[in-house]
Amino acid sequence: MTHAEQRIKNLLRLTAQQGASDLHLSVARYPTYRIDGKLIAFTQESILTPEDTKEMCDVIISEEKKKILLKEGQADFSYNFEDKVRFRVNAFFQQGYISVAFRVISSNIKTLEELGMPEILYDFTKVSQGLVLIVGPTGHGKSTTLAAIINQINRTQEKHIITIEDPVEYIYEQDRCIIEQREVYQDSASFSLALKAIFREDANVILLGEMRDLDTIGTALTAAETGHLIFATLHTNDSAQTIDRIVDVFPAHQQNQIRSQLANVLLAVVSQRLLPKIDSGRIPAVEIMIKNHAIENLIRENKPYQIDNVIETSLDQGMVPMDKSLAELVKKGVISLETAKTYAKDGKNLDMLMRN
What class does CATH assign to 3-105? Predict the structure, then answer.
């Protein structure tokens, strides 16, 4: 075993043992872990040189992915460490040097209860068609929430599930469902081509790792219209911004048609943030928008900016405003008021909720 192999294996083993979510290898820095959202340098190791990061990257990257890295400047892939821990990896160039970011993918798929997510999300597993979006910034648990939802279907229904991911993250143990996991650029040339193929694959449920472009979004809307249940992620901050982002991808002359299509197929938007707990670990705060007649009309009429008002006045339908979710976590003593204020949509509204 080479020095680089030994070194990267030790670092990955420690990542798992420390309960870190991420490991970063960057030139002129110590190897660095992210634990409970905070970056912690591993100073027992030496500071990384350009040769170090290149050699450690070479240990874990395939020849095919290496070609992509050299051609495009970055490459995504998954790495199975000793059949014990799975990582999502992004290798990329910065200032001409290679950096590598590892994200731990748990082998244990938790339930929504274990994740601290509202159980109303299980309702979305019981419908036969439509579109459910899990949104939020990178690193805030979208993939983990989706895995819990997909695994609930796997345990309780007889369905054909196809996942389209880049790279494949959680590996599902098939229970009552047939689950087929397609990795973009390995099993299909693109998200949109893999998604178009599902019309011929007798799929019931589709997990779409990301709605990246016009072609993928357009096909996802059509699939949701034609009898498929689609779960997908977007890097947006809330429900209103999510509607805008989807519509804005399309040319102006198509946008009215897309609004109408989206109003028909959208079931819910779940926006989540992973927040540091007072003791240790992280917990999600969520905004849940469930489509009703009012929201359907706002989408059609191009008034997504009014969606927050509907969420605020529809608690009895299972909707949850972000500020209410934050206030409840503070009242339970799980997160600090300072943390809640950092993520609040409206600081004054949060203060009012704290007094009630």
Answer: alpha beta
